Amino acid sequence: MSPALRYDFTPDMESATITMVREFNAPRPLVWECYTTADLLDRWYAPKPLTARTKHLDFRVGGYWLFAMITPEGQEYWSRQDYQAIQPTESITMLDAFSDAEASINPDLPRAVVEMHFAAAEDGCVVTSVTRYPSKDDLQKVIDMGMEAGMASTLERLDELLATLSEKDAQ
Amino acid sequence: MENNQTDLDSIFQALADPTRRAVVQRLGEGSATVSELAAPFQMGLPAFLKHIAVLEAAGLVTSIKVGRVRTCTLEEDKLEAAAGWFQDQREQWKARYEQLDALLDTLKARKKT
């Protein structure tokens, strides 16, 4: 087993952004392929026990990825990501939205801009992804919706949250 | 719950300060008096009480005064509301990335053969 791979997750309510940095033990072109190819995305994008299923993926500026995350009970959650800028193997900018199976975007829910950068590193690749909501209110809306959906929460999270906020101070 | 709209903004601002985070962490172990909470810090009581006031304004901490002693308690529900969503996102992406690690290993092995 390789040593722990770097993973930072930094929420910032003030700027309505979430920044994630993740290191991978594989060459950049391979990581890029996993982010941009339908059958590969379907193999990793849904956290277990969910599964991901792509209905449409047109990887070019102006194109979009339409996919569902499916629960073991068969409930489908559709998303649509529109590609706004692509720099092959280096960066992708896309607009993330909640949609239905026909790619119609839910206009009542905020859309986030996601900027991803792929940097070659000594032993692999580092992916930085910044998710930016139009405003604090929009981020709040997405959070309230998520919490209403009845997500589990425990006080143990306090320590992790405080650790995240402390790391941010240390930088 | 009479108020399910949580003001995450004020909670995050309250937690943006190391002294206040330390107080919250200490209160996670159980209620404490103001003087117990203030003991580890090199600051005057008035300055310390301002920190307590910020935590109270955010709804993270409540306090009651009995005689001359003020006892503070952590409002765990408030805190969970703030921590919950971000933590779910963090865990969700952690799980995704671990699946991607496994996929990358499979693909690397295939390319070698």
Automatic annotation (TrEMBL), chain A:
* Family note: Belongs to the AHA1 family.
Q: Looking at the record's lineage, which domain of life comes first? A: Bacteria
Q: What is this protein called?
A: SRPBCC domain-containing protein
Q: CDD domains per the record?
A: SRPBCC_CalC_Aha1-like
SUPFAM superfamilies, per the entry: Bet v1-like (SSF55961)
The scientific name of the source species is Pseudoroseicyclus tamaricis
The leader peptide range reads none
Q: What is the lineage of its organism?
A: Bacteria, Pseudomonadati, Pseudomonadota, Alphaproteobacteria, Rhodobacterales
**Domain Activator of Hsp90 ATPase homologue 1/2-like C-terminal as annotated: residue spans:** 25-162
Alphabetized InterPro entries for the sequence = ASHA1/2-like_C, START-like_dom_sf
TrEMBL record, chain B:
CDD domains linked: HTH_ARSR
| Residue ranges constituting the HTH arsR-type domain according to the UniProt record | 1-94
A Pfam family this protein belongs to?
Answer: HTH_20
Q: Which domain of life is it from?
A: Bacteria
Give GO terms: molecular function aspect only.
DNA-binding transcription factor activity
The record's annotation in PROSITE patterns points to: HTH_ARSR_2 (PS50987)
UniProt-listed InterPro entries: ArsR-like_HTH, HTH_ArsR_DNA-bd_dom, WH-like_DNA-bd_sf, WH_DNA-bd_sf
Q: What is this protein called?
A: Helix-turn-helix transcriptional regulator
This protein's species is Pseudoroseicyclus tamaricis
